[in-house]
Amino acid sequence: MESEKPTETKGLLQSRDLYEYILETNVYPREPEPLKELRALTASQPGAIMGTAPDAGQMIGLLLKIIGAKKTIEVGVFTGYSLLLTALTIPDDGKIVAIDPDREAYEIGLPVMKKAKVEHKIDFIESKALPVLDKMLENPDNEGSFDFAFVDADKINYINYHERIMKLLKVNGIMVYDNTLWLGSVARPESSVPNFLREGRMSTIQFNKSLAADPRIEISTVPLGDGLTICRRLY
Ligand SMILES: C[S@@+](CC[C@H](N)C(=O)[O-])C[C@H]1O[C@@H](n2cnc3c(N)ncnc32)[C@H](O)[C@@H]1O
Ligand SMILES: O=c1cc(-c2ccc(O)cc2)oc2c(O)c(O)ccc12
Which family does it belong to (predicted)? Predict the structure, then answer.
């Protein structure tokens, strides 16, 4: 029935109750304490909805563990939920290049990262991501050197991030793109989508098409959080 379709909220499942069930049963009981603390701290901030959903975070943590990631890139940090999750998951000598022009938001989460003793793994770069990724690619040592990348930033640039990250990742490296279902709007006619979602919807639809047509990667889109597309670099 039309009235049962999800609206623009996080969680793409058929009901809020089912989403809450997954969170309460599988996600919150296993969420590390520092992540709970950061989530609580972020809840009162403007833009709190932007924080990576904890169910999506759990999948990212699992992927990092499966591939034994040590060297990662994060585009879009906000207060640092996904960054802290990555820092807690990779080994003590692992490194994360984390890029975001908003240092103020990063500094909200920083005390939690310090308390969790993972700050030494984080290289936070206060900048828009494209020039940083381009600069990284000027150094041939960076090419094919990263195990993992997580992109959760300005949707309009996902295509541009993808081209750069493909070069920075190792063959078999994993990249994960957040919001690839853009609050469910990708499957709805534009006329039924609120204005504030329309630009992101168009960018996301184009991005999803380009990933599906990219022979260099294997992909899977999972309806966790706001939609995650997981890609493996094949060559
Ligand atoms: C959805 S939030 C990231 C959420 C974060 N992953 C978390 O777990 O809380 C998006 C972030 O992208 C950042 N951003 C926007 N434009 C950007 C750009 N051009 N380069 C890098 N980050 C950008 C914003 O400042 C914002 O902090
Ligand atoms: O409502 C949002 C908005 C964003 C967003 C907007 C503009 C940018 O330059 C970056 C991000 O991101 C979100 C997001 O990642 C999410 O999971 C939910 C909501 C939003």
Answer: Belongs to the class I-like SAM-binding methyltransferase superfamily. Cation-dependent O-methyltransferase family.
